[in-house]
Sequence to fold (254 residues):
Amino acid sequence: MRVASLGSGSKGNSTVIEGREGRLLLDLGFGLKETIRRLARLDLTPMDIDAVLVTHEHADHINGVAAFSRKFHIPAYMTPSTYDAKRMGPLPALKPIQYERSFAIGSIQVEPVVVPHDAREPCQFIFSEESNRVGVLTDLGHISAHVRDRYHDCDLLMLECNYDKEMLASGPYPAALKRRVAGDFGHLSNDQAAELVGSLNLPRLQNLVISHVSEKNNQSALAKSALTRVLCDWEGVLTLASQADGFGWIDLSP
Ligand SMILES: [Zn+2]
Ligand SMILES: [Zn+2]
Fold:
């Protein structure tokens, strides 16, 4: 398997998961032209994409889905309430999914995991193929016992490090939005992300990707230093998924 990102953050998210057979986009927060431009950086065109999966209806995850799906006749997978929340109109192939009910896209096994976030029916995903296991975990307000259990054993994990507590507290957001971001159904702070990382099966984890970093309430250096505090003897690779560039292909050894 290999994984890349078209971009990550509150202005648009999309991750590419490629298996032996099959290639999918997880979320699509970019418009058509921008998506095509970003795919080209990875030597891909829309014709190379077999499916679009959606985590939840927030604009940075779903804004580009309907246009992309309609224009290129690409099946779109999401929970029924995610579809209903967005009034997306008819899609050429809408595939409703359910929490904890796995399905396959080509040779990639897809496991939707329920997460605590302020959307109607949000989920995050674990992708596996043979012995490889890739977790994507963004847009959640706290680490539930269920999430901790599901994401314990991954070869690659994309993990939200949304905000630094002090930067959020002293930053430009209005009080209500600060409460929402920091709340139990908002986003993960650097400290919350680090706490989860410390409890993972680290000898197995080969790649950890800092994701969904807030441009106003965080700095990648702060996220990095929070994580490295719990990664003392870890031998894997730490990568940043940026808003402008995402990240290039990461290959997982079979
Ligand atoms: Zn988001
Ligand atoms: Zn969200």
